[in-house]
Design brief:
Layout (H helix, E strand, L loop, with lengths): L12 E8 L11 H25 L6 E8 L4 H8 L4 E4 L5 H14 L4 E5 L8 H10 L5 E5 L5 E6 L17 H11 L4 E3 L9 H6 L7
Parallel strand pairs: 1-2, 1-4, 2-3, 5-7
Antiparallel strand pairs: 4-6, 5-6
Length: 214
């Protein structure tokens, strides 16, 4: 895992915002047939800014906010885009499971007792839901935000479970179900958060209920 920027004290809690630089042809690729490469990238930029704004506004003392970005050579552009308020960490190569595992392992190595990871596909997410996840991790071992497509928009852990990220059928209607089975197989008790909608496909965009203007 790339080092977190700057000299950090021991981390009590951390949130990792998974995002990529909004470059045409590299962002929201499943929407390119509908919106074109630049249109899909522009949409992704708006989605990411919406979710990043929610994270920036979180009022939780001691919470480390990490922009966990891709590709790794876009750190300067990510900093210019997001501004201050985030520590930057470059994602490694590999599938989503490899990158999620890297984030949680790296955070726990820094001393975190509770870690939450979210992406930028769910613009319905609120600060209240994120804070609910952190509060849940005082009693439960894991917190999961189910997505309506069978995946999840939020994962929170208070201790490692490597198998939750390995061999998972990502981007399918089996993602959540298999992840829950792996977490419980690790002996973790899980708190489920309110189900929300991800935006990945043209059908999702048409069904979007966030009220935002795209």
């Amino acid at each position: 895992m790339a080092d977190l920027e700057g000299s950090l004290p021991e981390i009590e809690e951390a949130i990792f915002l998974f995002l990529r630089f909004p470059e045409a042809g590299q962002a929201k690729t499943r929407l390119i047939p509908e919106l074109g490469a630049q249109g899909a990238a522009d949409l992704y930029r708006k989605m990411a800014e919406q979710v990043a704004g929610v994270v920036k506004d979180l009022d939780r003392p001691g919470l480390l906010k990490v922009a966990y970005y891709d590709p790794a050579d876009k750190g300067r552009e990510i900093r210019e885009w997001l501004g201050n308020g985030f520590h930057l960490v470059a994602q490694p190569g590999g599938d989503l499971g490899r990158r999620l595992e890297d984030a949680f392992v790296g955070g726990f190595r820094k001393g975190a007792r509770r870690i939450v990871a979210i992406g930028t596909d769910c613009v319905e997410i609120t600060g209240e839901i994120i804070l609910e996840a952190f509060e849940a991790l005082h009693e439960a071992d894991a917190a999961i935000g189910p997505a309506l497509d069978g995946g999840y928009y939020l994962m929170g852990l208070n201790r490692p479970c490597h198998s939750a990220f390995r061999g998972i059928p990502w981007s399918t209607d089996k993602t959540l179900r298999e992840t829950l089975a792996r977490l419980r197989g690790c002996g973790l008790n899980v708190r489920l958060l309110p189900p929300l909608m991800d935006i990945d496909t043209p059908e999702d965009l048409k069904a979007d209920r966030s009220g935002l203007t795209w």
